Amino acid sequence: MAEASGKNNDHNGAAEEKARAYVETLSPEHKMLLVLKAQLYGGSWQPMLDDLNNRLEGKPYIFKLANRIKGDVERIEELMKFEKENDIDLSKFVKI
Q1: How far is CA 43 from CA 5, 56, 90, 95, in A?
Q2: Which of 13, 46, 49, 67 is such that its CA lies 20 to 30 A from the CA of 36?
């Protein structure tokens, strides 16, 4: 049983190290999206994507991001893909 636990800790440690290294390569725009996800959207991407899409469609939205909505949506999709593939929340690794 301890062996299985050790393997899980090794996996978690490797995933965290990969996430830290990945976050270090991100642009300031990517990092800002991670901060907004954590601070304004309860750690969830979907409400932020909903806000951006609502803004594009002229519907009410919660938070007004900069005029680069399409780029932000693409960055969010990239970040979501990394998080899903590595089962990790990147916003925990952004220093503000």
Answers
A1: 27, 22, 10, 15
A2: 13
Number of structural domains (the chain) is 1
Domain, as residue range, for 76: 2-93
13-35 residue pLDDT tens: 889 999 999 999 999 999 999 99
Dihedral of CA atoms 50, 54, 55, 57 in degrees, nearest 10, equals 140
CA distance 32 to 62: 17
- Measured CA to CA, the distance from residue 87 to residue 94 in angstroms comes to 16
CA–CA gap between residue 38 and residue 43 (Å, rounded): 4
The structure's pTM equals 0.64
pLDDT in tens, 58-92: 887 766 555 567 788 889 999 999 999 999 999 98
21: tokens are 């290294």
